[in-house]
Amino acid sequence: DRAQSLAHSKILTRGEDVQEQYDYIVVGGGTAGLTVADRLTEKGKYSVLVIEFGVFQNSSSVTTVSYGFFGLIDPALNFNITSVPQTGLNGRTVDVIVGKMLGGSSGHNGLQVHRGQKADYDRWGSYFGRRSQWSWDGLLPYFKKAWHFHPPSPELARANNIKYDARYWGTSSNIHASFPTYAFPFLKTEIAAFGEIPGVQFPPDSGAGLPGAFWYPTSADPGPMLRSFSRTGHWDGVAQTRSNYHTVTGQKVLKVLFKNKRATGVTFVPANATSGKYARSVKAKKEVILAAGTIHTPQILQGSGVGPAKLLREAKIDVVVDLPGVGTNFQDHPFQVGALFNLTKFTAHPDPNDLFLNQTFLAEAQAEYNANRTGPLSIASGNAASFLPLRVISPTAFSQIADKCEAQDPAAYLPPGTDKTVVDGYAAQIRAHARDLRGAGSAVYNLFVRGTYNEGSAIYLHPLSRGIIKINSADPYFAEPIIDYRALSNPADADILVEFTRFTRRFFLDTSLSNYGPVELWPGANVTSPADIITALRSFMIPSSFHPVGTAPMMPRKLGGVVDEDLLVYGVSGLSVVDASIMPDLPGAYTQQTVYAIAEKAADLIKARA
Ligand SMILES: Cc1cc2nc3c(=O)[nH]c(=O)nc-3n(C[C@H](O)[C@H](O)[C@H](O)COP(=O)(O)OP(=O)(O)OC[C@H]3O[C@@H](n4cnc5c(N)ncnc54)[C@H](O)[C@@H]3O)c2cc1C
């Protein structure tokens, strides 16, 4: 197609075609990387090179909106990484899934578009003090800039009580947030059931920064009904027409080069290289911007001599700056927590399972989709969920749990020998989270519902356990980094997840959903004591919903931070990080919307200091 041939004509696939020098080098052409590169090149003033490990991909596993998850199962789009065995999960390992293509994880995520709560972004600023620009108010203009909002059709909104308020959104971005044209009938019943629980609110919009039960959009361009992601919104038709914008794909950055602690450029090799034999270097006049994502940004920093000195020495890497926080503070949203239910008296067909089980329904849906790009196949992985505070899911235990967190010795839950600055940062986070666990403005529990009879796998939005990512000291550049989620290493997580299970049971058994014959599939109605629930969790929970953050945290340096509020790496100059790794802690939402907003804000910060 046209987009593809245009793209192919302008892309550099050979390292030797790269110029000697650019104003900016963006490492990683993913969600954040392509957003920043677009903004830096749009006025024609600066030259930018994006270096991307993956290649241009436009297969149906990327573009398809229906079902939302084709990319997950396409090995061409994924790095092949497995975590270390998880002590807290009976030694199980976990697949670490992040996107590998021009567009990064935005090219194969589940297309759900949520914004975190005000409390999340204000918490980020609180680590720096009252006047930080990292706050809900400071980020709201960038959420608006990042997204082009298309409201649901009036019929869909009316039939399903979908609340939205376009004032929380913009319409100038080429990244689209839109609604499917169809909703399965049972969804309305499920969302209404949340309203039967005391304290559950229905905020005016999914972007209002408030917890509750609500509908939210999909990252799809509603015209052609195709995935809208950083490549389609910030690169297709943009990079091709700007002579100041170069992209090289299929190349892996090994390290940042420094002269007197100033970043001067990077070294890169073909993505399939197993040695530095064909390494090339390229210079950055103004800045090297790391946007390789939460898994690989810390690997590149450590491989460049920016990281914990002890680890670097083990790997025989010269220390440029001893920055203990690099690779620490690793977080993701655990899922398969709560409880799974089967509604044995469900009759509200059609439901999503009918797309697999009812050939007539599938054929009709397919015909409608082919003709108009509408109907059930315009639904991706979901558009309705609850995001609930601990005090709502556990009115009896939330306060005690918060007390227990406040009384913790955080050092006890980090690896032995963790640097004092990192421990102090963790302590600050635990205090901030304890405050939010008590409050009504921050969601910990997420249950996304699909309008069907097998539901209930909740997602935990603010885990307190912290993982770690380290270069493989035997092969720091060519082996994948060593990834440890350290799942359930902070016992408060298990306490909170016990409440998740109890609440999920109340949701199915004590609301009008009880009319549909709910039977618990997991962990099972007989599993009731906290100890038994935790045992079940260890065998079932997955510590990732593919939302890794935090490994180059924006925190004060004395709190284990890696970047400051301008996203500049401490202890060196000319080096910044712009991707999910800078989030000090997780938002109470999936992460893509926040990553785009961070990238939009970062572009302004970078231009301001140019
Ligand atoms: C399967 C899946 C489902 C998800 N579902 C949702 C969802 O429904 N809703 C939501 O909000 N969020 C979702 N997310 C999360 C969201 O997509 C990510 O948080 C976000 O895209 C991360 O953006 P990023 O810029 O930090 O990293 P990425 O977009 O991953 O970009 C990093 C880029 O750097 C490249 N790179 C890595 N190492 C190197 C190197 N050494 N040299 C050069 N390039 C390199 C990578 O190939 C990649 O393109 C999902 C993610 C995944 C993976």
TrEMBL record:
<dbReference type="GO" id="GO:0050660">
    <property type="term" value="F:flavin adenine dinucleotide binding"/>
</dbReference>
<comment type="similarity">
    <text>Belongs to the GMC oxidoreductase family.</text>
</comment>
<dbReference type="Pfam" id="PF00732">
    <property type="entry name" value="GMC_oxred_N"/>
</dbReference>
<dbReference type="InterPro" id="IPR007867">
    <property type="entry name" value="GMC_OxRtase_C"/>
</dbReference>
<keyword id="KW-0285">Flavoprotein</keyword>
<dbReference type="InterPro" id="IPR012132">
    <property type="entry name" value="GMC_OxRdtase"/>
</dbReference>
<keyword id="KW-0274">FAD</keyword>
<feature type="binding site">
    <location>
        <position position="253"/>
    </location>
    <ligand>
        <name>FAD</name>
    </ligand>
</feature>
<protein>
    <submittedName>
        <fullName>GMC oxidoreductase-like protein</fullName>
    </submittedName>
</protein>
<feature type="domain" description="Glucose-methanol-choline oxidoreductase N-terminal">
    <location>
        <begin position="293"/>
        <end position="307"/>
    </location>
</feature>
<dbReference type="InterPro" id="IPR036188">
    <property type="entry name" value="FAD/NAD-bd_sf"/>
</dbReference>
<keyword id="KW-0732">Signal</keyword>
<dbReference type="InterPro" id="IPR000172">
    <property type="entry name" value="GMC_OxRdtase_N"/>
</dbReference>
<dbReference type="Pfam" id="PF05199">
    <property type="entry name" value="GMC_oxred_C"/>
</dbReference>
<dbReference type="GO" id="GO:0016614">
    <property type="term" value="F:oxidoreductase activity, acting on CH-OH group of donors"/>
</dbReference>
<dbReference type="GO" id="GO:0044550">
    <property type="term" value="P:secondary metabolite biosynthetic process"/>
</dbReference>
